[in-house]
């Protein structure tokens, strides 16, 4: 874990090579979750995830089976393997605004 005030200098302050992995950030508003997947296209990744020389990680969902008996009749918002309703993106950015950093998706979501 790196303190927020120490992140900026990690990529270039000395001769050590580092891979900085940053979260893309979350879509936080319940109203945006209901607008999935359109909301993911406009809820932008958050600082510092747009940093140069960083690996920015978003989330895809793998948990789509609802087994809680109190939720009979409910269905998953996203299909398995699809972008998580909670993951922000940089899809709305113009080409000139996008830095040259790697982007990836890993399994995300809430666990019990």
Form type: elongated
Fraction of helical residues: under 10%
User: Widest sheet: strand order?
Assistant: 1-2-3
Strand content: 15-25%
For the sheet with most strands, the description reads: 3 strands, parallel
Task: Give a short summary of the structure.
It is built from 2 helices and 3 strands; from the N terminus they run E-H-H-E-E.
List keywords for this structure.
mainly beta; 112 residues
Describe this structure in words.
With 112 residues, the protein is mainly β. It has one domain. The protein is built from two helices and three strands; from the N terminus they run βααββ. A three-stranded parallel sheet has the order 1-2-3, with no helix packed on it. The longest helix is centred in the N-terminal third of the chain and has 5 residues. The relative contact order is 0.24.
Describe the secondary-structure layout:
Blueprint: E1 20-23, H1 30-34, H2 38-42, E2 54-61, E3 102-108
Parallel strand pairs: 1-2, 2-3
């Amino acid at each position: 874990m790196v303190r927020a005030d120490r992140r900026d200098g990690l990529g270039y302050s000395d001769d050590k090579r580092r891979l900085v992995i940053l979260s893309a950030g979350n879509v936080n508003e319940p109203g945006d979750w209901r607008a999935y997947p359109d909301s993911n296209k406009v809820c932008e990744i958050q600082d510092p995830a747009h940093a140069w020389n960083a690996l920015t990680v978003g989330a895809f969902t793998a948990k789509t089976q609802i087994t809680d008996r109190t939720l009979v009749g409910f269905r998953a918002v996203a299909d398995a393997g699809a972008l998580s309703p909670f993951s922000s993106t940089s899809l709305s950015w113009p080409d000139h605004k996008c830095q040259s950093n790697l982007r990836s998706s890993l399994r995300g979501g809430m666990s019990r």
